[in-house]
Specification:
172 residues, mainly beta, 2 domains, three-stranded antiparallel sheet, 2 helices, 12% helix
Length: 172
């Protein structure tokens, strides 16, 4: 079992059994595991970020109508299946944050986007592994408030890595 497979198994156990998981008790009762794309080594990246100077603030709207404040840290370019793409990394009180939505949003992936926490490697380099892209908790039910992906991080390319859409969501 790969490290990624082990992480996914642990997440499924947490979702199925933990009272603090994002699923309701009814969802947990029927939960059989999350769905993922197969591991894709080509989407495990080390990127160089071009920092924004100055790093301006952005208010990200949330799924419940509020807003959260982040700093626009920097932008990086990469390719997916030969197609160019670019994303902005944000900085917040808990570290670096990379929300994104891809061309599969609303079909194979969660419509409002998925999240990553890029790992700083020193200088302006970051590890960005799309294989660990995950759905925000509001993808599972409406009791959670999640930042919505800004327009600058909505990709026209499909990112076939990470977590797929959750089909047992409860939305009122």
């Amino acid at each position: 079992m790969s490290k990624l497979d082990e992480l996914r198994r642990e997440k499924d156990e947490y979702f199925k059994h933990d009272a603090y998981a994002p699923l309701t008790p009814e969802q947990q009762r029927d939960f059989a595991g999350l769905h993922y794309f197969p591991e894709n080594a080509a989407l495990r990246l080390e990127v160089t970020v071009t920092p924004f100077t100055p790093a301006d603030e952005i208010k990200m709207q949330t799924s419940t109508g509020g807003a959260q404040t982040y700093r626009r840290y920097g932008r990086f370019e990469f390719t997916v299946d030969g197609q160019p793409a670019a994303l902005t990394i944000y900085a917040g009180e808990h570290g670096y944050f990379l929300p994104f939505a891809d061309a599969l949003a609303g079909q194979e992936t969660y419509g409002a986007g998925r999240y990553l926490e890029p790992e700083p490697l020193g200088g302006d380099r970051f590890a960005v592994d799309f294989n660990v892209a995950y759905n925000p908790y509001c993808a599972y039910n409406d009791r959670w408030s999640c930042p919505l992906t800004p327009a600058e991080n909505r990709l026209k390319v499909a990112v076939r890595a990470g977590e797929k859409v959750f089909e047992g969501a409860t939305h009122e």
